[in-house]
Fold each of these.
Amino acid sequence: MSADTKHTIRKLEKAGEYELRIEWDDGVAMRYNTATLRRKCPCASCIHEWTGEQILDPLSVLETVKPVRIEPVGRYALRFHWNDRHDTGLYTFDLLRSLGEPESSPRKND
Amino acid sequence: MKLDQNDLRAALNELRYPGTDLTLESAEIIDDLRVKNDEVLIRLHWPTPFQASHRSAREAVEGKLKEIGVKKTHFQEQVEIPAQARQGENSLLPGVRNIIAVASGKGGVGKSTVSANLALSLARAGAAVGLMDADVYGPSMGLMLGAAGRPVMADEKTLIPIDAQGIRLMSMAFLSGDDTPVIWRGPMVHGLIQQFLSNVAWGELDYLVIDLPPGTGDAQLTLTQLAPLSGSVIVTTPQEVSLIDARKGLRMFQQVNVPVLGVVENMSYFVDPASGNRTDIFGHGGGKRTAGELSIPFLGEVPIDPEVARGGDEGMPIVRKNPESPAAQAIAVIAEKVAGQLAELAIKGRGSAALHLDWDDN
């Protein structure tokens, strides 16, 4: 078989008005608060490309921020179009994997 | 003894499709199976186009059924190359079932030659194949395939690939001319690649082979990020130094989550046509060792054959010019392995959901 690749997303769903749910290929499920996710935007206007410092002021992100649309980029990342009109962040699967709150009782293969 | 469906299916349960670990049963290669007295009618959907694989699978089926008392087996066969699961409804290249990127860590290893011959091997086996020459810095596919035409526009922005020896070909050279050096800056490369991915009317394809520019820079990264690649092939030469370059290539694909189907060792050895003696001009086995060290499959070695280079210059690649030559045979084997692995990936990835979500529709 081909070389191992990283985790991929099996399922992407809206779990609540401000909550995203991702099910990974290894059965792990994670939840994400949408405003928290927006505050972690990795794009060049939110994170300084050289220093890695955050440019975005987390306090400027409202609790009511949520995606309008999410779409895949290649097979390694998701692009979020937020309702504050920000849409330049590519969230790699690695980043998403590190940001999620694991569900307490994993639902496997439901 | 009376035969029934379940006995038959149980007997066939363990059989695998050649070159893959797909069982005929679970991969739905056996589409239908009927028993009438001591005769069986079996309908098969082959996941790769190669007749040698079909033949050996068919013989295995026949043998197994004979063992349990089937007098005669009738076959209905159809090639149905499975499409990779797509992670988005508006994804690029919608009619293309499999997209293979051919890459090399450095130039001069014969990546374009391997791409052209790989595409032709798949097409010779009967698949619908496209070839995208994305080598922005030195596109050469037009020349290699003896395609002199220019693509026509279907409408204001859609390009129709040209037909070259039975494959659909699109090359950066068609837009710039074969002998004009292309000096693209990063953002232009990005735009051009985007255009190639979204504005070319490829139509329905079983395989699209993308010949990447050598190296692991901007253009390569853009392509691997934008195109929904199904898998990649890394071309190297036998030298030790190629290990370093191959590793870079592997890293690049891993970063963007594209499965590496394996390593091809090109210019592997030379067989003197007069004496039949084999000489390992650049050493031997570097590709295999590299694959081993990186834990990726080794797809095969392509010998040095002056005919290969000549074929490229004449616009008649070796696979067409002399399909019985060792170099052409080696590439055919590689193509078979690539097709097998892609079928495996596609069949195992079935049912994976689209990663496109409109928040307010849910």
Amino acid sequence: MTDESQKRIEELREAAKPCFQCGICSSSCPVFRVAPEVNPRLAIDAVVSTGELTEEGNEWLCAYCLMCDQRCPMGVSLTDILIGLKNLSAAEGNAPFNITKAVESFFTIGVIAPGTTGVERKRNKLGLPEIPKPDPEQIKILFEGTGGLEILEKNLAKESLAE
Amino acid sequence: MKYAFFIGCTMAYRLPFAEKSIRMVAPHFDIELVDLPFTCCPEPSGVRSFSDDTWLVFAARNIALAEEKGLDILTACAGCHESLSMAKHELDTKPERKSLANEHLSAVDLEYKGTSSVIHLHQVFHDKLGAEEISKKVETPVIMRVVTHSGCHLLRPEEILQVDSSEAPVKFDKLVEILGMEPLEYMDKTMCCGAGVRGQASDISFSILKEKLDSMAMVNPDAAVVFCPTCFISFESGQRIVNRMFGTEFKIPVYYYTELLAVAMGLPEVEEFLAGHRVKPDFPLVHKSAAEQQVQPENTTSQ
């Protein structure tokens, strides 16, 4: 683990510290409601003690509904903490396949949910205007400059190893 | 009102018929939509999960494009709205984040200044136009009992987005009421549709959706009305998957608000976008009388 990752983990632990384990995050979480093994209250407890989750990869199971953030009486943003953990996980090349694919699409065309074939025809038929496309060169400069490309390549490399 | 129109990937590429309804009703309220070469907002579950900095800089780029034209951004998707609003909040309240964004943006000759705001259609209809302006346009009320779903990313974080109450939203219900519908209170009104984990954990995602649909079905609505294309897809396509997975029999038609607004306004060609729906109501949405009104043009008498 790099020094920078270590520093980031310390920041996340600090952000989680005000938690007093009241559990309103768990009772508000739609994921916990159907998958009790994914428990936000225990997740935050693990972050406070170790800086990571007990079950590696569980950070990717947050639905990002923001209910826990909204209700936390201590103003802890579990969502932000989990985004921090996802960033660390992605930096190691451990992002889920669908996320990697979405980000690859973003890097290629600036869109993460490209349409199925025929969508342009459908748009035409409805009389919708052509959507102005972002300059690919601009995307490349910003994506590479902010470190996105390095992370994407790491995840794509892991995928191809797994295949 | 002139806005930089942030359609968003999902609406543009997956629900073009819903986009059509927005572009149909907009001129009737003097709303001019300007299309700009935006990228994806970017969406938090994908790009932001990869790199917070990449997310922030691309959101700043999108907002900067609108700033260059001197326009505020109008969003149609709750996800885009939350993402752009959160990025804007960070850029406007944390000087170090703003400098970071501008350092990167200078490489593509752009600058984030903070001069454009981000507003969702929900806010334009409820807060800017209001009940009076909308009801003036209603020709043929849409008579249905409906459940509304504002969507997580219009409601939370409430302090920053300020669209409606995050625990007990009422504004969307008012908006459907103006069109003639009866909004129904239901248990899990503010609960997530499950979209956020669909790609990486579909079993969890559809279990969440089932809980949500159960809650809607309890009050026996004629339809569900949404203000987010991602929620639309969850409910509409998703209910068929839920039915397969759990042996349920959900059959709840789903509408994006402006589709029903167009119907209520008696606009022509609404059948064109309603045809794009996969779950159709078992009653006519456009009533005969409305259809007849459409083919009885005043111009036969005025000419």
